[in-house]
Amino acid sequence: MPAADAPPPAPQGAGPGMRFGLFVTLIAALMAVTPLGIDSMLPALPHIGRSLGIANENHQQWVIAVYVFGFGAAQIVYGPLSDRFGRKAILVPSLSLFAALSILAGFASSFPLLLAARLFQGIAGASSRVLTISIVRDCFSGRQMARVMSTSFMVFLMVPVLAPSIGQGIMLVGSWRLIFFFLAAFALAVAAVLSFAIGETLHPEYRRPLSPRAIGQAVWRTLTDRSALGYTLAITLIFGALMGFINSIQQIFQDIFHAPSKFPLVFAGIGLSMAAAAFTNARIVERLGTRKVSHTALLCMIAVAGLHSLFATSGHETILSFALFQFATMFCFGLIGSNFGSMAMENVGEIAGTASSVQGFVSTCCGVLLGLVIGQAFNGTVLPLTLGFFVFGAAALVVVFVTERGKLFQAHHAMPRPEAGAGH
């Protein structure tokens, strides 16, 4: 029997019982549920505002914010639940609930009802984010797992690029409500494939009881480890800037540039810059190290955001200048996020499931609130957005500086692990 405190690795080559290409497609589809639920809505926000009588344009941002808040808040429960009851037993019902809530949102007759549906839609959709990695880990280990995740992630990166165009394309043939029906159909299709094409990936002997004491100790360990807490806070600040961008971007193209039709194209280009950063990071991080890459990228992001703020005050901002500055900003963001996430997990590997849930909960929920600060400050200029990246980036740099005890760029020497069984 495996030890109760850590399931053993999946046997090398123990696959999911389905063709590799289909498995990768399923994993990518599961990963796509959340970004589709966010980014496909962006072109629809002004239409939703007019349809439901939203007087203040800034209030449209709540359609995005409440979804992401629900998504972040629910992450902390799905890991322990799936460790007890299995992956499919949690995923299939939650995807079905996501579809039902999407239909409810599509029929919403008032803004409060729409926001309520979006909140619970985010809660249901969070399962796909949390449990995807667990399913891959159940089936593969080592280089095989890396191959599945890297292939799936490359597909996943295309979703934010295409989602606004999907949303805009749907509205060419009908109402914004059809976007929610599309999300429902997508979730049901993924749930159906998951139900019939793959068995339960968590072996019965690896299931864990729900132990409040063990979960509480793991949460406390995550929140008191210097590196885990520091980089979680840094990720939160950076994610807050990203949420400010997502909240503001549609209004920027609608109210400043008066070119909403160009929004999907520029958004796609910004998404591709993040994909290029992920591609670059994969090829340089082993040679240069996570700290050198991410700390340098953070400094560059602050500098780019500062320059963009100065340029915006000159009154010469155009779609081209905005796009170029944001391409550079998001390229830096792409070099920061995954590396900060990796460093946040360095000292908590033996409680990785709970630690990941806690970090996702903190960074997402708090990041949403920070993003709302930026979004609600929209005043007909790009300055709230550019200053948001600058201020939150600078704050993240201070957090990193304190976390690393004043030594940036240097390789980290892992702290000794606690004695086996400690905290259980």
Folded structure, characterized:
With 424 residues, this protein is mostly helical. The protein contains 15 helices and no strands. The chain has helices spanning 20-39, 45-51, 62-85, 87-106, 111-139, 142-156, 158-173, 177-197, 212-224, 226-256, 263-288, 290-313, 319-344, 352-376, 383-403. Helix 1 (20-39) crosses helix 7 and helix 10 packs antiparallel against helix 13 (319-344). The protein is globular. The chain starts with 19 loop residues before the first helix and ends in a 21-residue tail after the last helix.
Write the layout of secondary structure elements.
Blueprint: H1 20-39, H2 45-51, H3 62-85, H4 87-106, H5 111-139, H6 142-156, H7 158-173, H8 177-197, H9 212-224, H10 226-256, H11 263-288, H12 290-313, H13 319-344, H14 352-376, H15 383-403
Helix pairs in contact: 1-5, 1-6, 1-7, 1-8, 3-4, 3-5, 3-14, 4-5, 4-8, 7-11, 9-14, 10-13, 10-14, 10-15, 11-12, 11-13, 12-13, 12-15
